[in-house]
Amino acid sequence: MLKILLVDDEIVTRKTLEVFLVRRGYDVISAEDGHHATRLLKKYTPNIVITDIIMPEKNGIELILEIQKKYPSIKIVAISGGGKINAITHLNIAKDLGVHAIISKPVTDKELDEAIESCLKS
Fold first, then answer.
1. What CATH number corresponds to the domain at position 44?
2. How far is Cα of residue 95 from the mean position of the Cα atoms in its chain?
3. pLDDT per residue over 68-85, tens digit each?
4. What's the domain range around 35?
């Protein structure tokens, strides 16, 4: 079964995406920020991490860099709604870092399906 770690500080977004992913048959665990995700990565070895970029404490860029260094086989999907600068700027930074897919919020079912499929093919 495909394991996904979902990281987003917005509880509504996190729960909505979690329900969608579970309905698709994925094993999902979620975290509210990068620090919590780091702790979970030590216990739970996901195939894919879906992470927001703008989060308190440890943001998505820091988490992406850590995953790439410590867990290079994990595929990463970055999502963002923006923040002080627009979402595309944040997502382009993530893309330049080598994530497998980027999605602007609000995330659609189709975009999420396509991002996961892209991760599985690479």
1. 3.40.50.2300
2. 12
3. 999 999 999 999 986 556
4. 3-121
Residue 50 β-bridge partners: 6, 77
How far apart CA 99 and CA 95 sit, in angstroms, is 5
CA distance 92 to 82: 12
Starting at the earlier edge strand, list the strands of the sheet with 75-80: 27-31, 3-7, 48-52, 75-80, 101-104
The shares of helix, strand and coil residues in the chain, as percent rounded to the nearest 5, are 45, 20, 35
Domains: count for the chain: 1
On whether the pTM is more than 0.85, the answer is yes
85: left (phi over 0), alpha (psi -120 to 50) or beta: beta
Cis omega (within 30 of 0) for bond into 106: yes
**Strands, DSSP E only, in 1-122?**
3-7, 27-31, 48-52, 75-80, 101-104
**Mean pLDDT value across residues 47-68:** 95
Mean pLDDT rounded to a whole number for the chain = 93
